[in-house]
Amino acid sequence: MRNLCTHPVDILFLGSNWQSVEVLKTLHRDTRFNIVGVITTVDKPFGRKQILTPSLVKEYARKNSIEVFHTEKDSRKYREALDIFKPELIVCIAFGEILPEFFINYPKYSSVNVHFSILPKYRGAVPIQKAILEGEEETGISIMLMSEKLDEGDLLKILKEPILKSDTNLSLREKLVNRTSHILGNTLEEWIRGEIVPVKQESSKATYCWQRDISKKNAEIDWDKMQPEYIERMVRAMIPWPDAWTALKNNREEGIEGITLQILEAELINCNTKLKPGTLFVSSNQLLFSTNNSKICLRTKKLKVAGRKEMTEQSFLNGTGRRLAT
């Protein structure tokens, strides 16, 4: 049986964003593994000046003398990567490309992916946001063998994580990434040593989530149709992008009709109002939206007027919304 402490496993790592970096850091520092290279997305234009900017994974790799490779969804480049790195194990998290079957099947110890849901529920691109949106009480981390189909691989390990009423896409993601960093190394060693028997997913129970589920269009609040509880979950699920938003329609007298607001932090409070759903008003120095439930209002604690900086409810009332308080 292989002793990873004396004979570390050669890993080719695939990822792009900050959560990929946190997991890469852990594996890179773990003497049981040898990161032979990383595959990440190509440099992309960023900011107003559209300056070509490398992914966070690429930045980390360069600083730590790890070779970087770009595949750009080209099967020939995937073959080239295998020739260069000859990995014994491939590890992938938040990479964003569908991998060729020959690439997935190449390593001695297979290819492993980390997905933030309790599979087979919420296969796809936005499982954390979807779990919050749907009011789930828990989500988790699925460590699985990769397949050419979307998140359908056999499961090596699932760890469950409760979703708190205060959790946002960011806070929950940070907890899942942190937990992954702590358990992935040991899970990989157990797999390599033959101590894990992969479990097939129950595909009949599969659900899917797509990037369009949290598109800018779908982030618009429909005050007439959406229940207040769902709207509050939208706010938590859709930060830092695209942010739940609304165009004010019932505030002509205050001179703010037509203004677009992004709601960044909110809470539901008890109230008693006959205002039309989606009307912005002030009560007890709190900035409130009426909902389709006359006894529940949405308090807006942090917000952003389109094109401006983030502000608190009081800052808004002192400026753009000052007439609401009169």
TrEMBL record:
Formyl transferase C-terminal domain residues are 214-320
Q: Where is the Formyl transferase N-terminal domain?
A: 15-183
Q: What does this protein do?
A: Attaches a formyl group to the free amino group of methionyl-tRNA(fMet). The formyl group appears to play a dual role in the initiator identity of N-formylmethionyl-tRNA by promoting its recognition by IF2 and preventing the misappropriation of this tRNA by the elongation apparatus.
Please state what the protein is called: Methionyl-tRNA formyltransferase
Q: Which UniProt keywords apply?
A: Protein biosynthesis, Transferase
Please name the gene that encodes this protein: fmt
Q: Does the keyword Protein biosynthesis apply?
A: yes
Entry-linked InterPro entries = Fmt, Formyl_trans_C, Formyl_trans_C_sf, Formyl_transf_N, Formyl_transf_N_sf, Formyl_transferase-like_C_sf, GART_AS, Met-tRNA-FMT_C
User: Where along the chain is (6S)-5,6,7,8-tetrahydrofolate bound?
Assistant: S117, I118, L119, P120
Describe the family membership recorded for this protein in Swiss-Prot or TrEMBL: Belongs to the Fmt family.
Tagged with keyword Nuclease: no
Name any GO cellular component annotation: cytosol
Protein EC: 2.1.2.9
The UniProt catalytic activity note for this protein reads:
L-methionyl-tRNA(fMet) + (6R)-10-formyltetrahydrofolate = N-formyl-L-methionyl-tRNA(fMet) + (6S)-5,6,7,8-tetrahydrofolate + H(+)
Membrane-spanning segments: none
